Amino acid sequence: MRAPLDMSAFAELQGLLDKLAVFGAEAGGGVTRLLYTEPWRAAQLFLEERMRAAGLETRFDRAGNLYGRLLGADPAAPVVLTGSHVDTVRSGGRYDGAYGIAAGLLAVAALKRTCGAPLRTLEVVSLCEEEGSRFPLAYWGSGNATGVYGLEDGAGIADADGITLAEAMREAGFGLEAQTPCLRRDIGAFVELHIEQGIALERSGRRIGLVEAIVGQRRYAVTLTGASNHAGTTPMSMRADALAGAAEMLALLETRAKAAGDPLVATAGRLEAMPGTPNVIPGEVRFTLDIRHDEDAMLESFCRDTLAAFAAIARRRGLGFASRIWLASKPVPMDGGLTGLLERACLARAYSSRRMVSGAGHDAQLFAAVCPAAMLFVPSRGGVSHSPDEYSAPLHLQEGAAVLADCLYELTYGQEWQR
Amino acid sequence: MRAPLDMSAFAELQGLLDKLAVFGAEAGGGVTRLLYTEPWRAAQLFLEERMRAAGLETRFDRAGNLYGRLLGADPAAPVVLTGSHVDTVRSGGRYDGAYGIAAGLLAVAALKRTCGAPLRTLEVVSLCEEEGSRFPLAYWGSGNATGVYGLEDGAGIADADGITLAEAMREAGFGLEAQTPCLRRDIGAFVELHIEQGIALERSGRRIGLVEAIVGQRRYAVTLTGASNHAGTTPMSMRADALAGAAEMLALLETRAKAAGDPLVATAGRLEAMPGTPNVIPGEVRFTLDIRHDEDAMLESFCRDTLAAFAAIARRRGLGFASRIWLASKPVPMDGGLTGLLERACLARAYSSRRMVSGAGHDAQLFAAVCPAAMLFVPSRGGVSHSPDEYSAPLHLQEGAAVLADCLYELTYGQEWQR
């Protein structure tokens, strides 16, 4: 249940994260490492070198996912995979994604050093892309590894400069026939270690988050159409003020979301009021909705009832109402067996833990479609992420890595699992 | 009480408005005639020609206000002035401002034709600017005529191209020593005929609006500061969502404004939410408030109480709150004697009328500081103005002109007034 490693195995974790943060470092302390850019390429080559130095067998697949392999005694047994993504958002932090790769690499290296070859093959992966920050598409790395995407999907998607994903991939030296195909059919388990990016662990004083499910998400674009009119000569009773209607809707959204309770979250992140002139009543308002829950039925009913309530508000106010769904992902439960394994590892080390729902999407949800998948979180200071201020304490980072190592040890050296 | 004119005196009113609309005409039917531009200049020269043709003595003052004078038997008696502004907003209509000039010109011309010289001097004015559409300053014409502005105020104010008001004035041929000074000390009454720009007359089925007061206005810029955070990983209870706070404030604003009753109007015309990303909780929101009422005490208490309620909402939500006032004008009552004269003229012609408050600002409020001033409105179809769709029916336009003529007749030919 517990890997025969002491914490010195993870002593260099913070140093490794600091080195990774050099690739794409910005003056203000942020890191920008977008898919297929030079900082991205340099980070992957650096990681390849570190994997090799640890005695792992490395390879890039055609999409640019980097694997480091520790061959098991039974090469036909399903592979146990850990890792996360190497790309960042613009002006992101040094932990989101990078932590799961660095900790996985150190765990696999330490297991090799201490225990030699495992029964089952163990791999660490530095997935090429998860954030969707350069191209309007997320999970390019895990999506290609799990067959959700094929490389041909990169042809029609361009970045802000008009460069297609396919072009950028070729320029970075990928997408070649000679390279390993992306699709993995040999994975038996995927375990991803990540920073929480929320404040639940910090607030509850727990050290490890055990992810039971990754929320489903729905995103809508809502348009309200009223009548743009003179702010001075139009009495309150004769207005069709699209912004006043939006205000009533957003107040209701918040009330309904709070009433639904955790883990439901509902956010209007973008709102535009037209024409946007101080002395003109807004005739049109567009806003977005981002609604998440870990139960599909709850998500469905909340969205349906909220939009129906919005439509009723619009009708009463004489406003035109249109909503369009532009993103819908179902909730993804993590594997109960793997999560139980992680929980027992926390108990054995006497680390406090809590089961929780991930409100953010992760690569693990892609792997969950093709193999048992699990995730564990460590605390994010202040719940801040996607920011230069992203921070997790070195001790927390090492504890997460130790629990990951315990789990990987059980899965690849243990006699019990998946016989 | 009634001018000895039949309605044929105003038969060419629509034609004159159509001709004026040629200056600055746009493909889509709108009119853009900004201060000191070529269309503006052409319109003023056209009007000067029409005034001369009617036998009026014309002159431009240094700011570009155009006067047409019908000299009275007593040249020392205070002058009776009518008119409005010749400039438009961008893509405005053909009635706002232009109507008051055209109708005034036809009324004065008809009175001269029919009645000869009046007892007191009667003038029609085409004021150079009211809208503030080119330069960030409104009432340049009436402001200079009444001493609120001096020409030197044009030096520090530039349009979007960086051209100062003073430069534009000189390029249009004004601002010269040789020209008539702007300030009028000889005006005994100002009567302005205008389209309503609101829907009150149309809704109530009345033909003439008698303006009792022009509202006071206050405009504020409000900034709310919360915490921008991940829309998925931040529970509802741990948010400082600036947009949710703004929604609660705007809902309250509307409720309070409706409760206050007409003529109070309150509008948030512009709202920006930052960073404006669908999956990020807005950390900052800026919005504007435009609040109007015809009683200064009511305006003051409504603004004070509303901002206090906003501040309380912000405190409860843990949001930073700042408000800045950037425009404040007091309500301006119109002259009761002149308004009574207009009301009696409506009665004599059996035109239905209603007393009302002007929710928009007008040149009459500048003149009200230096002489008795009055305004009358005719219906605007659908309450639409500042738009190519601005429209008032020819019959309504003629009726307004007839009431204006009656009033001017009484003021300048009558034995009773201002002896």
TrEMBL record, chains A, B:
<comment type="similarity">
    <text>Belongs to the peptidase M20 family.</text>
</comment>
<feature type="binding site">
    <location>
        <position position="85"/>
    </location>
    <ligand>
        <name>Zn(2+) 1</name>
    </ligand>
</feature>
<dbReference type="InterPro" id="IPR010158">
    <property type="entry name" value="Amidase_Cbmase"/>
</dbReference>
<feature type="binding site">
    <location>
        <position position="194"/>
    </location>
    <ligand>
        <name>Zn(2+) 1</name>
    </ligand>
</feature>
<feature type="binding site">
    <location>
        <position position="96"/>
    </location>
    <ligand>
        <name>Zn(2+) 1</name>
    </ligand>
</feature>
<dbReference type="InterPro" id="IPR002933">
    <property type="entry name" value="Peptidase_M20"/>
</dbReference>
<keyword id="KW-0479">Metal-binding</keyword>
<feature type="binding site">
    <location>
        <position position="219"/>
    </location>
    <ligand>
        <name>allantoate</name>
    </ligand>
</feature>
<dbReference type="GO" id="GO:0047652">
    <property type="term" value="F:allantoate deiminase activity"/>
</dbReference>
<dbReference type="InterPro" id="IPR036264">
    <property type="entry name" value="Bact_exopeptidase_dim_dom"/>
</dbReference>
<feature type="binding site">
    <location>
        <position position="292"/>
    </location>
    <ligand>
        <name>allantoate</name>
    </ligand>
</feature>
<protein>
    <submittedName>
        <fullName>Allantoate deiminase</fullName>
        <ecNumber>3.5.3.9</ecNumber>
    </submittedName>
</protein>
<keyword id="KW-0862">Zinc</keyword>
<dbReference type="GO" id="GO:0046872">
    <property type="term" value="F:metal ion binding"/>
</dbReference>
<dbReference type="Pfam" id="PF01546">
    <property type="entry name" value="Peptidase_M20"/>
</dbReference>
<feature type="binding site">
    <location>
        <position position="96"/>
    </location>
    <ligand>
        <name>Zn(2+) 2</name>
    </ligand>
</feature>
<keyword id="KW-0378">Hydrolase</keyword>
<feature type="binding site">
    <location>
        <position position="131"/>
    </location>
    <ligand>
        <name>Zn(2+) 2</name>
    </ligand>
</feature>
<feature type="binding site">
    <location>
        <position position="279"/>
    </location>
    <ligand>
        <name>allantoate</name>
    </ligand>
</feature>
<feature type="binding site">
    <location>
        <position position="386"/>
    </location>
    <ligand>
        <name>Zn(2+) 2</name>
    </ligand>
</feature>
